[in-house]
Amino acid sequence: MVTTEIADKIKRLEEKYAAMGQNLSSYLDGLLYADYLTYWDYIQLDVLLNLQHPRTPIPDENIFIIYHQITELYFKLTLQAIEQISFAPERTATVFTTQLRRINNYFRNLVNSFEIMVDGMDKDQFLQFRMALLPASGFQSGQFRMIEICSTRLPNLVYEPQRPGMENCDLKTVLDNIYWRSGATELATGKKTLTLQQFEKKYMGPFLQLATRYEQSNIQAAYQQLSEADKAIVIPLLKEYDLNINVRWPLMHYKSAVRYLHKKPEDIAATGGTNWQQFLPPKNKRIIFFPELWTEEELNNWGKLAMGE
Prior knowledge:
Elements: H1 4-19, H2 24-33, H3 39-42, H4 45-48, H5 61-86, H6 93-113, H7 115-118, H8 123-129, H9 142-151, H10 171-176, H11 194-213, H12 219-224, H13 228-261, H14 276-279, H15 282-285, H16 296-300
């Protein structure tokens, strides 16, 4: 029996497909013969469970791979939320709070789950399989660098001593001086590591395009366009965002590196050749997305309290 409700929906479907020059009957045939959707097909479960390709037979390498894959999925969600803030038809406190809460939840989950990496792998197994990963490194997460670029004015991603000279430079020059490039440079020779060379070859072009697109639409710029009343609402969420990405997240990486790579009398080198002792501690790199939201004392102590200093 065709109810009035079903008849109304059929009529609306006919109008929808007619507007596109399509025949509703053909689509109904497709629906009639199509299989029911299953959970495993919808999320591509078989594909997902076959995306791990360890380089060694060491069991804990799977933990390392899967955790990093989960991390990149959270980064993808973060970039989607940033996009919705930066290019919203109308920027309001509601748009900011909805998306910032999502991002902060993503990073809260990432930070809290990092124990999977810090304590969840056998140290001896890690030190065995890590050598098969050369020269790959978590440093090469292009999505995390995209999050940084989309979050703030590009000069804020240059180390402080160089920052004043970057204010009037073009985006490519600023990007050429972005802080993380020195994190994968050999301290003794000043040469770029292979890790950095690979990374730049793949991403520097897309990074410049992204920086251009977000130059006037990054989170910091979007915040500054809000009304004073809306700014007051979103400031706590922005400060949480700043701490999550620039203090808590790198600090968890630092703790993990200390656990696995710290060894007397000389620390073990990272797989990518990064000078992790200087590069990872947030108090050293002092990258801050929204410096205007913090007091002078908070800026001076950036990252130190989190490290127990």
